[in-house]
Please model this.
Amino acid sequence: MNILNIEKINAFEEAIKSYYQEFRDIGLIIDEQPDRLHEFTDLASVQLLSRMMIPSEYNDHPFIINNTKFYGLTCIERVIGTEWLSYGDAGVVVGCPGPSLSGIIIQDFADEQQKEQYYSKLLSKPCWTFFALTEPNKGSDAMHIETNMKKVNACDGQRLLNGEKYFIGNGTRAEIGVVFARTTTGPIGIEMCLIEKDSDGFSAEALDTLGLRAPKLSRLTFQNVRINEEQIIGRHLSPLKRGMHGAITVFNKMRPTVAAMALGVSQATYDYMITNKKNLSLDQQQKLEHFQNELITTRNLIRQAALEVDINPRNGYVGSIAKVRATSLVKQITQYALDLFGEGAFFEHPYLNKWFRDAFAFENMEGTSNILKLNIFQSYMNGKISYV
Ligand SMILES: Cc1cc2nc3c(=O)[nH]c(=O)nc-3n(C[C@H](O)[C@H](O)[C@H](O)COP(=O)(O)OP(=O)(O)OC[C@H]3O[C@@H](n4cnc5c(N)ncnc54)[C@H](O)[C@@H]3O)c2cc1C
Model:
């Protein structure tokens, strides 16, 4: 992994900051009518984000600053880019076309043919993707998913995919994505497959959500969808190095990014209060100073987490701590902002209304705080980390 030096990281941050306004301008529109996102795929910011995480072999249009090409393949690029675009609007960030979560799977586990299939779709037009792990009754408990992929007969590699996935980002508009399904019992009996939206037996239906509405969380249904051997991702790897190992890799690499979304919304809320609320009492000034310090320490923690993951993707603990902290901050600050502006704020300040609703979505992405705290505690107790 190419680790960027501090000058390049700073240049990247300065350049990407200027893109937030386009997301801010369309955030409320997309929140109300998520389908209108298709009207904005020509925006420079949307184009930029949709090409992030496409590697150089397939990507002729990276983000170039001072002759350095940025592909969004390092976690540090992703947390900085995501923070500032989420400062504009986090819903649009999650709702944008591009690789997102499934991109990590393709980059790290797919074979050349699967990469060609996936990236060529992404480059031909604005193309959404999905990552389908969660099920109606299996969220945090992902090890026990029930969607299954059984062999049609013993002598060929054909399988039938059956089951249901729930809360899947961009599921109704995605062209291609990754599905996790069980081929046999036990933790290594889970495989990943690459599937296109026009496969027979595959359907997607949008769910109605209160926060982060742009990605149109969806229910995906698979009824006897035929899966060939070539669609199984990571079949060239040992069972321990694919399947659920893929999901864990995605979570480790993307958890700091979710923390960065929460931070971007927190910073936007803080700046909104500073700009729009005059004549603050002493108590209010002190509370805002407290939030300002929290923003700085949370940002430092997220960036430390990103650098750790870039050195070794198994170093996910700091990312877990950063995400717990960032999701706590965003819930506190968005609630405080509504209280600060008083009765009627929910209706008179549409951005505060939206940011408050969005704040609760981050909690459930890439591990809830309860589960992350359990993991952090277990890692501390068995000596994998020396501090919390
Ligand atoms: C905006 C958004 C986007 C998403 N995108 C995707 C996506 O693209 N693909 C995908 O596969 N999924 C996606 N999800 C789903 C997400 O991964 C799940 O919501 C998450 O895994 C939690 O699962 P759950 O909602 O079933 O809650 P549950 O697992 O049922 O948890 C409910 C509550 O119980 C607590 N809890 C659960 N187990 C324990 C335990 N053992 N000890 C203590 N507390 C516990 C949790 O902390 C939580 O507070 C998305 C969710 C959101 C909100």
